[in-house]
Design a protein that fits this description.
Pfam families: FCD (PF07729), GntR (PF00392). Helix content is about 75%, strand content about 5%. The protein contains 11 helices and 2 strands. The longest helix is centred in the middle third of the chain and has 25 residues, at about 90-115. α1 (about 5-20) crosses α3 (about 45-55) and α4 packs across α11. The relative contact order is 0.14. It folds into 2 domains: about 5-70, Arc Repressor Mutant, subunit A; about 75-230, GntR ligand-binding domain-like (Four Helix Bundle (Hemerythrin (Met), subunit A), Up-down Bundle), CATH 1.20.120.530. Strands 1-2 form a two-stranded antiparallel ribbon. The chain is mainly alpha-helical.
Length: about 230
């Protein structure tokens, strides 16, 4: 899928999410037909379907074959998740602090001593994450996101560091799911991994470190932003 196609379906996701969040498309309502939506949003049917799959995977809509696409009532689920993050904000911050101490150094080190097989694994991972995002497979997006960081740790650190990072990453699946609920974050996550990979490929350790720091800080900020949002009208 081209970058242009990704921008179209990502923008379509953001547009429909805004309509749902504003209440213009209320919970339980049926979305217009694909033909009407394509005309209204000026997008292809393929881009619209990708956007709807993404919205379904993050809990915004329910696709019912033969019936249509309906807006889901997300208030209860969102409230529980946001409450958990607010109640455990110190734990979340400590996990990010730990990642911040370890991962930028690992990315910098891998840029200096990478091998072609490792680069091939990272390229495959980024491509798989992009494909999963295009299909709206959020579970696969989250899995490939974590795998990207694990591959770096396993090939730039030692077994103890890699094991520690695996444990930390196992705790942040919901954090990633929450961050990806926010507008534009799905495509951005794929883009950021691609940029980190490009820096490693160029053996630019300083750039790999900077990008990893920025990536983690952004994720931490998004979790707090998500937790602080109100689900009430």
């Amino acid at each position: 899928m081209s970058t242009g196609d990704e921008q179209v379906w990502s923008a379509t996701v953001d547009h429909l999410r805004a309509l749902i969040d504003s209440g213009e498309l209320p919970a339980g309502s049926r979305l217009p037909s694909e033909r009407k939506l394509c005309e209204q949003l000026d997008v292809s049917r393929g881009s619209l379907r990708q956007a709807l799959r993404v919205l379904a995977s993050i809990g915004y809509v329910s696709i019912r074959p033969g019936s249509g696409t309906y807006v889901r009532d997300r208030e209860g689920t969102d409230r529980e998740l946001r409450t958990w993050f607010r109640e455990h904000d110190q734990l979340v911050d400590r996990l990010f602090d730990l990642r911040m101490m370890v991962e930028p150094t690992l990315a910098e080190r891998l840029a200096a001593e990478h091998t072609e097989p490792v680069l091939a694994r990272l390229r495959s991972n980024v491509a798989e994450m992009a494909a999963a995002a295009a299909k709206g497979d959020m579970l696969r997006v989250i899995a490939t996101d974590a795998e990207f960081h694990r591959v770096i740790a396993e090939n730039a650190g030692n077994d103890d560091v890699a094991g520690l990072l695996r444990s930390v990453l196992s705790l942040v699946g919901e954090e990633r799911r929450a961050a990806l609920r926010l507008p534009g974050q799905i495509a951005k996550a794929v883009e950021e991994h691609g940029e980190i990979l490009a820096a490693i490929e160029k053996s630019d350790g300083e750039r790999a470190r900077e990008l990893t720091v920025s990536h983690l800080r952004e994720a931490q900020s998004l979790v707090h932003r998500y937790a602080g949002e109100s689900t009430s009208d």
